[in-house]
Amino acid sequence: MRKLYIIGIGSGNPEHITVQAIKALNDVDVFFVLNKGSSKSDLIRLRKEICERYIDDPSYRTIEVVDPQRDPSIASYSLRVQAWHQERAVIYEDLIGRELKDDECGAFLVWGDPSLYDSTLRVIDHIIARGIVHFDHEVIPGITSIQALAARHKITLNGIGESICITTGRQLTPGLVASSENVVVMLDGKCSFREVLDQDVEIYWGAYVGSDKEILLSGRLTEKLETIEVARSAAREKNGWVMDTYLLRNPSARRS
Ligand SMILES: C[S@@+](CC[C@H](N)C(=O)[O-])C[C@H]1O[C@@H](n2cnc3c(N)ncnc32)[C@H](O)[C@@H]1O
């Protein structure tokens, strides 16, 4: 039976890979790499570096596929993403069927951890449901960008007994921050923290966390937001892409 590993590789630091991931990497015959365009080539480079560094026998194969574009003619965001996942499923299914022999092992290397804002497992579920190619699969956890951010700022994400809300820039509202002690924001292309004007809120922000391009900034949100915006846009200009994550901590939302 074919085997497929979905391996979390951490979010930018090749030393964040786990021993379990290294063992799985060494079992793999074929790596499937999704190419998301030239501006994200740093992300492909990290995957290559991980393979070269941790795999003893370099006889593995790497197959690169171009990521399909989302169809802009589908108005609903969730339907657009679902259609895109289906399209990815067909591409992966074809690759698995064509490139992986019955006794071979393939892998998708997933940025951070596969459980957090990543569609690989959903796409794998679509392939299984289609029933055309058959394989066993195993998920190997990785260090998320949230864990890396907290470690680099030397903070806990929550105060004692508090909750943490993890969301996207699209979903961040002043009301959410007013009612949540700790909000972690990912996938924010628009510096949505600008909408939060509460004087008490603190921000712990990081871009390219864990990598050699890392930028960390923290402090009272109202005092730091401009510095963060400038740093983010300069970094994006310089590198062609940016990935940032931040924690908003609101002490006035705390319940006694
Ligand atoms: C598609 S999600 C993938 C998340 C990933 N699965 C994880 O476990 O962190 C991409 C988002 O993760 C965050 N991210 C990933 N790597 C990062 C890094 N090195 N530094 C800061 N944020 C990062 C950003 O918010 C980015 O928009």
Automatic annotation (TrEMBL):
<dbReference type="InterPro" id="IPR014777">
    <property type="entry name" value="4pyrrole_Mease_sub1"/>
</dbReference>
<keyword id="KW-0489">Methyltransferase</keyword>
<keyword id="KW-0169">Cobalamin biosynthesis</keyword>
<dbReference type="GO" id="GO:0032259">
    <property type="term" value="P:methylation"/>
</dbReference>
<dbReference type="InterPro" id="IPR014776">
    <property type="entry name" value="4pyrrole_Mease_sub2"/>
</dbReference>
<dbReference type="GO" id="GO:0009236">
    <property type="term" value="P:cobalamin biosynthetic process"/>
</dbReference>
<protein>
    <submittedName>
        <fullName>Precorrin-6A synthase (Deacetylating)</fullName>
        <ecNumber>2.1.1.152</ecNumber>
    </submittedName>
</protein>
<keyword id="KW-0949">S-adenosyl-L-methionine</keyword>
<dbReference type="InterPro" id="IPR012797">
    <property type="entry name" value="CobF"/>
</dbReference>
<feature type="domain" description="Tetrapyrrole methylase">
    <location>
        <begin position="3"/>
        <end position="222"/>
    </location>
</feature>
<dbReference type="Pfam" id="PF00590">
    <property type="entry name" value="TP_methylase"/>
</dbReference>
<dbReference type="InterPro" id="IPR000878">
    <property type="entry name" value="4pyrrol_Mease"/>
</dbReference>
<dbReference type="InterPro" id="IPR035996">
    <property type="entry name" value="4pyrrol_Methylase_sf"/>
</dbReference>
<keyword id="KW-0808">Transferase</keyword>
<comment type="pathway">
    <text>Cofactor biosynthesis; adenosylcobalamin biosynthesis.</text>
</comment>
<dbReference type="GO" id="GO:0043819">
    <property type="term" value="F:precorrin-6A synthase (deacetylating) activity"/>
</dbReference>
